[in-house]
Design goal:
This protein is α/β, with parallel strands linked by helices. 47% of the residues lie in helices and 14% in strands. It has a six-stranded parallel β-sheet, sandwiched between helices. Helix 3 links the parallel strand 3 and strand 4. Helix 1 packs across helix 8, helix 2 runs parallel beside helix 3 and helix 3 packs parallel to helix 5. The longest helix has 29 residues.
């Protein structure tokens, strides 16, 4: 099957990275459906509908993510649960709907979008950092299960990207606290993240699985 015949689902497509990714995938001749749900039953219904209309799903990008930042002392159970449901549970909810088909057909790509703060932690983000770190644990274990079926599962960990979520940070904080931590001296572009994901969706990336690829301008190296 050629790339031009493949179909993809992207979650969190309303955000800056998601919009850039949808545009890039369409440009590569891949059919794309956007999904923004975290409830398991809703995911099952949506995926069944998409596959009935578009055919088998070969590519899944779990990109949905939110923040509810506050110190742990002030963090509520609701803030913890909301971030876990959207950022981590959604990976299970969506991947569960498409993985059996990928394995049966002998081809598939799952890309899970984590964060630099899942790698290094961040003040006021115990919920977000925990969820984003959990994503890569999910990636590694699932990658082991499906590797022999020509299905790859990878994580990418963006740093500070020029999305609405990041540009909403007060300019003085960006200029004094965030940009000085980034060796390249700027925010990343959504199109740069999309380009990495599109590579991981390709035939050329068949030997990359279980990886966590940083795209953070040198902010965190390990």
């Amino acid at each position: 099957m050629s790339d031009k015949e493949r179909a993809a689902i992207v979650t969190g497509a309303a955000g800056g990275i998601g919009r850039a990714l949808v545009k890039g995938l369409l440009g590569a001749g891949i059919r794309v459906a956007a999904v923004d749900v975290v409830n398991y039953d809703d995911c099952a219904r949506k995926c069944a509908q998409i596959q009935a209309e578009c055919g088998p799903i070969d590519i899944l990008v779990n990109n949905a993510g939110i923040t509810r930042d506050m110190t742990f002392k002030k963090m509520t159970k609701a803030a913890w649960d909301e971030v876990m449901r959207t950022n981590l549970d959604s990976c299970f909810n969506m991947t569960k709907q498409v993985m059996d088909g990928m394995v049966e057909r002998g081809w598939g790509r799952v890309i899970n979008v984590s964060s630099v703060n899942g790698q290094k932690g961040a003040f006021g983000q115990t919920n977000y950092s925990a969820a984003k770190a959990g994503i890569h644990g999910f990636t590694k274990a699932l990658a082991l299960e499906v590797a022999r079926k020509n299905v790859t599962v990878n994580t990418i960990s963006p740093g500070y990207i020029g999305t609405k979520m990041v540009t909403a940070i007060p300019k003085e904080i960006l200029d004094s606290k965030i940009l000085p931590q980034i060796p390249v001296g700027r925010l990343g572009k959504p199109e740069e993240v999309a380009g990495l994901i599109i590579y991981l969706c390709s035939e050329e990336a068949a030997f990359v699985t279980g990886a966590n690829i940083s795209i953070n301008g040198g902010q965190h190296m390990y």
